[in-house]
Design a protein that fits this description.
heterodimer; A: mainly alpha; Four Helix Bundle (Hemerythrin (Met), subunit A); about 80% helix; B: mainly alpha; Cytochrome C Oxidase, Chain A; 16 helices; about 65% helix
Chain lengths: ~210, ~550
């Protein structure tokens, strides 16, 4: 057994293939749990929006759709880079190609956070922090922005963890003697990354699109 | 046909390294990835929390000896019962059976070397410790007064106590139980020994599997509801604030969406333990194995749709109330199936009354009472009258303490020889089991009457006419405290002075009894193979004849 394989193999698994199967199985279970976590937030959003439909539209119009849309594009592209890395490793491309794709994924993740940071700064300048002095008069608008900060904040936290995981994979994941697809951490990281992306695809219309049609 | 080992053979001390002998340094324990060592870490932790939560409620029961306030102030009283609730629910009851007995036994019972993700297992213990540290910190700082339910808007706007630290502690321990759940599900799916099909799994394994499903799918909702409470409290984001259009009831829905299934996180593993113990000491196959499995899984499933019965008086629509009431009756059906099947398992059994069996029979009676009073509470016309009275307190203590804690002690005694390699003193154990049963009933039965008479929960003073019942309850609590102190004493005693345990002291079936006591670090010297179902105590469909010697050791035909 080669050294890199041994360094990745963990108890109680006899070989990397079954360890990889288990890691993938485990992360799917965990993703189900994550969906329930965000499901709670989305339920809270739904209840508040049904209670205050007009305030939610008015508040959503105050969000910055340029930043939001740009970020959606950035994150979708990052997932594309992640899928590319998986495909490249599947076809046994050169490790440098795989690493380049992974590095691009992490870089796009960082770009998302940077854009989000500018957006947060703008929001604060416009007085959209729903405690104390708040820019919008409609009752219920504070609820929208309370949920906005919590949902995007929790999402950003997830993305930060994802960047850490992808970064680790880029640096240590596929050594010269080991294809990335042998590494049990690879698919786990990819699945987690795609979940964070999918969550954003749900958050984007909930946050940026209400009240903008017609 | 299996041949019984001679008594001498069975008492031979295996001269092999056990998991206990695999290093005694701090690092070998606190960095352990062996599921058996992690189980011990959990066991020590939850024992500490059990006595902390018990100390808090001792002061509460002391206060309730007399109608007027004489031991603590009203504010301290609130903080004491809150601490009791938070600690007992999240730091004792939820991890009690899964993280200790489950962690230790799940790989052994399915013939595996370890759980699927041993490092995640250790990580989950550290998360529990982190949560525990925050919870103990609240106690040192002065406590929390919201009750274990953290109801808004009191918890978010009005409480002057350490809500954030307590909520964060529970938040952290929640992720610990998600990690355990993920680990157990993957373990059961992927690491069963050759021949161990799903319907040959012992019911304890099934119960851990069903519990893990609930942990993974319900706990994140608790996490998010506490996250929103923390956000409102610290960042002043007005999520549940009615002044800004927020809905405090939304919190109750989110909270009970977790906290009702959490009841099943606490009681399903107990049902698993009891199934193992009753079959062993009645020398019987479990009655209706497949129905027992379906009942476990359907309790876990239906349990997700009954949370509204905690909110009948919160002003919900009568139609919603009707649906939740109906579903609460539905979830009683699989629970009743289990009780009937345990009873039928005893029929024509060769019953013996060792301590684990006494605890298990105690479970059977007390769980039945807790379950039946649950039906009272599921009926809206009755619930409206006894909401927030001691009737509710008595009901859930019959399930949680009479049920789960009894089963935890049943399992602890049953597997103690396997875990420690020592036999506990049987006489003392039987005495403690019986004392616990009487102490429990003396403590909590009067509370049904108090609740029926209208005494509300969470008050530290009460009208004098309730005193006689409260004195009975507080006296019972003293007996109960003694009954809990006893096992703590004699089990510790047995670690040093107890007789060496043979591999299979109970002549039980089940893979865990086919390895050494205590097991070696790698669990089995040879990969076990399974060709029969569980509880192979007698030929299928034939009750054992009165003079028949019990079969020994599942699947072994030596």
């Amino acid at each position: 057994m080669s050294a890199p394989v041994q360094s990745l193999l963990r108890e109680p698994w006899p070989d990397l293939a079954s360890q990889r199967e288990a890691a993938t199985f485990g992360i799917w279970i965990f993703l189900a749990s994550e969906l329930l976590f965000f499901g709670g937030l989305i339920l809270a959003y739904a209840v508040c929006r049904i209670g205050h439909p007009h305030a939610f539209m008015a508040a959503a119009r105050e969000t910055d759709i340029v930043y939001g849309t740009a970020n959606t594009a950035v994150l979708l592209t990052s997932s594309f880079a992640m899928a590319l890395a998986a495909q490249a490793s599947e076809r046994e491309a050169r490790p440098i190609v795989i690493r380049a794709c992974l590095a691009a994924t992490a870089a796009l993740g960082c770009a998302f956070l940077a854009i989000k940071g500018f957006e947060y700064a703008d929001d604060l300048r416009k007085g959209l922090w729903p405690a104390g002095d708040f820019a919008l008069p409609e009752p219920g608008a504070r609820l929208f922005f309370a949920l906005y900060w919590v949902m995007t904040g929790v999402h950003a936290l997830h993305l930060t963890i994802g960047i850490g995981l992808v970064g680790r994979l880029t640096i240590r994941g596929g050594g010269p003697h080991l294809r990335l697809r042998d590494n049990p951490q690879a698919e786990v990281t990819a699945l987690y990354w795609h979940l964070v992306d999918v969550i954003w695809i749900i958050l984007y219309p909930l946050i940026y699109l209400p009240g903008r049609a017609g | 046909m299996s041949v019984a080992a001679t008594p001498d053979e069975r008492l031979l001390v295996p001269d092999r390294p056990s998991y206990l002998g695999a290093g005694a340094s701090l690092r070998s324990w606190f960095g352990a990835t062996d599921h058996k060592r992690i189980a011990i870490l959990y066991a020590v932790t939850i024992t500490i929390f059990f006595f902390l939560g018990g100390a808090a409620i001792t002061l509460v029961r002391l206060e309730l000896f007399t109608p007027q306030a004489d031991v603590v102030t009203a504010d301290t009283y609130n903080r004491l019962f809150t601490f009791h609730g938070i600690v007992m629910v999240w730091f004792f009851m939820v991890p009690a059976i899964p993280a200790t007995l489950g962690n230790f036994l799940l790989p052994l019972m399915i013939g595996a070397r370890d759980v699927a993700f041993p490092r995640l297992n250790l990580f989950s213990w550290y998360l529990a410790i982190l949560g525990g540290a925050f919870t103990v910190a609240t106690l040192i700082l002065g406590g929390v007064d919201t009750g274990w339910t953290f109801y808004t808007p009191f918890s978010t706007m009005f409480s002057n106590s350490h809500v954030f630290a307590a909520a964060f502690g529970v938040f952290a321990v929640g992720f610990s139980s998600i990690a355990t759940g993920v680990n157990f599900i993957a373990t059961v799916h992927l690491l069963r020994a050759p021949g161990l099909t799903w319907f040959r799994l012992p019911l304890f394994v099934w119960s851990l599997y069903a519990t893990s499903l609930v942990m993974v799918l319900a706990t994140p909702v608790l996490a998010v509801s506490l996250l929103l409470v923390m956000a409102e409290r610290v960042l002043h984001l007005p999520i549940f604030d009615p002044a800004h259009g927020g809905d405090p009831l939304l919190f109750q829905h989110l909270f009970w969406f977790y906290s009702h299934p959490a009841v099943y996180i606490m009681v399903l593993p107990a049902m698993g333990v009891v199934s193992e113990v009753i079959t062993c000491f009645a020398r019987r196959r479990v009655f209706g194995y497949t129905f027992m499995v379906y009942a476990l899984v359907s309790i876990a499933g239906i349990g997700f749709f009954v949370w509204g019965h905690h909110m009948f008086v919160s002003g919900m629509s009568p139609f919603a109330g009707l649906v939740f009431s109906f579903l609460s009756f539905v979830v009683a059906v699989p629970s009743a199936i289990k009780v009937f099947n345990w009873t039928a398992t005893l029929y024509r059994g060769q019953i013996s009354f060792e301590a684990p069996m006494l605890y298990a029979l105690g479970f059977l009676g007390l769980f039945t009472m807790g379950g039946l009073t649950g039906l009272f509470l599921a009926s809206i016309p009755i619930d409206v009258h006894v909401t927030d009275t001691y009737f509710v307190v008595a009901h859930f203590h019959y399930i949680m303490v009479g049920g789960t804690v009894s089963a935890y002690f049943a399992g602890l005694h049953f597997w103690w020889p396997k875990i420690t390699g020592r036999l506990y003193p049987e006489g003392w154990a039987r005495f403690a089991a019986i004392l616990m049963f009487f102490g429990f009933n003396l403590t909590f039965f009067p509370q049904f009457i108090l609740g029926y008479l209208g005494m509300p929960r969470r008050y530290h003073v009460y009208p004098p006419e309730f005193q006689v019942w409260n004195v009975m309850s507080s006296s019972g609590a003293t007996v109960l405290a003694a009954a809990y102190a006893l096992p703590f004493g004699y089990l510790l005693w047995s670690l040093i002075w107890g007789r060496r345990a043979p591999n299979n002291p109970w002549d039980a079936t089940g893979l865990e009894w086919r390895t050494a006591s205590p097991p070696p670090p790698h669990n089995f010297d040879q990969q076990p193979r399974i060709d029969v179902g569980p509880y192979d105590y007698h030929p299928e469909a034939v009750a054992p004849a009165p003079d028949q010697r019990p079969r020994r050791r599942q699947g072994e035909d030596a």
